[in-house]
Amino acid sequence: xxxxxxxxxxxxxxxxxxxxxxxxxxxxxxxxxxxxxxxxxxxxxxxxxxxxxxxxxxxxxxxxxxxxxxxxxxxxxxxxxxxxxxxxxxxxxxxxxxxxxxxxxxxxxxxxxxxxxxxxxxxxxxxxxxxxxxxxxxxxxxxxxxxxxxxxxxxxxxxxxxxxxxxxxxxxxxxxxxxxxxxxxxxxxxxxxxxxxxxxxxxxxxxxxxxxxxxxxxxxxxxxxxxxxxxxxxxxxxxxxxxxxxxxxxxxxxxxxxxxxxxxxxxxxxxxxxxxxxxxxxxxxxxxxxxxxxxxxxxxxxxxxxxxxxxxxxxxxxxxxxxxxxxxxxxxxxxxxxxxxxxxxxxxxxxxxxxxxxxxxxxxxxxxxxxxxxxxxxxxxxxxxxxxxxxxxxxxxxxxxxxxxxxxxxxxxxxxxx
Amino acid sequence: xxxxxxxxxxxxxxxxxxxxxxxxxxxxxxxxxxxxxxxxxxxxxxxxxxxxxxxxxxxxxxxxxxxxxxxxxxxxxxxxxxxxxxxxxxxxxxxxxxxxxxxxxxxxxxxxxxxxxxxxxxxxxxxxxxxxxxxxxxxxxxxxxxxxxxxxxxxxxxxxxxxxxxxxxxxxxxxxxxxxxxxxxxxxxxxxxxxxxxxxxxxxxxxxxxxxxxxxxxxxxxxxxxxxxxxxxxxxxxxxxxxxxxxxxxxxxxxxxxxxxxxxxxxxxxxxxxxxxxxxxxxxxxxxxxxxxxxxxxxxxxx
Lengths: 418, 303
Fold this sequence. Notes:
The complex is a heterodimer.
Chain A: E1 2-9, H1 16-26, H2 32-45, H3 60-65, E2 72-77, E3 81-87, H4 95-103, E4 107-113, H5 120-131, E5 136-142, H6 151-165, E6 172-177, H7 201-207, E7 221-222, E8 225-227, E9 240-244, E10 250-251, E11 255-259, E12 264-272, E13 275-277, E14 279-280, E15 285-290, E16 301-303, E17 310-321, E18 327-328, E19 332-337, E20 340-354, E21 359-361, E22 366-367, E23 372-385, H8 392-395, E24 396-400, E25 407-413
Parallel strand pairs in A: 1-3, 1-4, 4-5, 5-6
Antiparallel strand pairs in A: 2-3, 7-16, 8-9, 9-15, 10-14, 11-12, 11-16, 12-13, 12-15, 17-23, 17-25, 18-22, 19-20, 19-24, 20-21, 20-23, 24-25
Chain B: H1 7-25, E1 29-32, H2 37-50, E2 58-63, H3 69-82, E3 86-90, H4 91-96, H5 114-125, E4 129-131, E5 148-151, E6 179-182, H6 190-200, E7 211-218, E8 221-224, E9 240-246, E10 257-259, H7 265-274, H8 279-283, H9 293-300
Parallel strand pairs in B: 1-2, 1-4, 2-3, 4-6
Antiparallel strand pairs in B: 5-6, 7-8, 7-9, 9-10
């Protein structure tokens, strides 16, 4: 069975919690005791019907305030696929949650109210999804029951959104007319909208082709751990390199180059606790043995001699700033990229991106909480990286405040002289 | 050739990656082992992540003193066959020396008391990362838990001050005195766990499979008759014999059985897939007290 990870975004008013509750409920993932619990809560709140949105409320503060604070992960499966939902809150001040949810997602589901159409927030979320390299976007045009299931309204909202999305890098946009509250086009096709001949949301999630989204071309194997069981007598001479294949396909007998040393050798074996393998591809965790004894440590990288990542200390990146304290030019931060830690100096804030208009504000000299902008960085050691849009695993990094140890930014690397 | 891993392979690889990050970036990790199915899977994954080396960290068991004897036997057998080092934190000893006080009410569980013992063992052991088998599908408050979850010097969890967790780039930095709880099974569901147990032939304590047992009904749950939990005749409770199995394993006083005829992993998988009641709802008396029971315990430093 295949795994699909998707993020959902939209505000409480768009009916996002209802939609997720409906997906879980209609795909029979809600257990009787959970349903009874929300029936009791709905009654206590004075709701007129069982409020499926309550299924997704987690923390006490959220129930009290009727809002969602943090990314919540939910799980369901159909006979075709297993799904992981990153349910992200919709308030504008929580862009960081959207970035977090998108960072591991294959697809993003956005909701809009059919009566209102795309809002500033819709555009913001679509932009974030695009920046985070999401290839598949689904726009659920919800509350169709409140516009008499009218096709003209659906088409108008769709056109407006597609005009905006044309400026983004998302290649696959699907619009679905829906009533999450009534269940139209969530799991089953709606009988109210005969004019719509597309799939229901669940059908689309089950069928959408994600197999080609991974990078199977550029071999990148960041060394996570050097395995040298010196203490064990029978394994004294064993030397292997544990890690997850970030991209590309690694095969026994392949010639590989080790960075930063630049030495080449061949892959002698690809091993796991379950035995040797001929090849490994993302996201497999394996141990690699090489033909020659080389000086290799955690944070080094295996690649092919004729297909190497960029190696450098001067980087350009799009960054989402996630801390209350603003980022200023000259800041020094810790940086984690693949399995390597470095320190980074913020040399310049090139521009701040207005995610509503996509305008680049070049007068900005810093980034505030939830701002997205372009930075020039200098790191203490070279990073072996690719452009984020071609390789999410080797194109991403986080920045960490060295005083508080808080994660303060998500970064997506750009081509060296872009 | 599709170059595609199945969902179980993806989950396994993700868990191995997380454990290797722990071994690479922490000074003194430990693994929490309860003898339950999730910790059995966790231990199996630790063996795979560390292969061909032995598991280099200690295995910690918090023993409430109310454990199923079958589970303790199973624990000792696992520890011996893997050659790992076991550290037992005894809730009974903490009660005996007066460090914690047991609730006097009949039928009171030691669930909440475990937190004290757990935090004591973590502090005494000097562990900076503690691997646990928690899953996000278990409970509402857990759905918002990070894979690498920071605890302050009091062991407390602050759900509103969690670090954003991006890609697979785990931020393991912390001050001395703080520690991390690490949950490699975050993205697994109960069904995934069972499918993995079957695929990998992971041994489990026999109480996970259908057997005859003396039980009684309390608050809609089936509890085992044992030295620490007995039916109260004055509450209309009476013992009877039933064919049951356990979906979770914990303290005998608050872990309930479910009626079942499933004697093999395959039969359990079918039952799990068909089940209409959640794992915690069916079996955990401790989560029924309030809607936020788990959230409150987690804040204090619970598993």
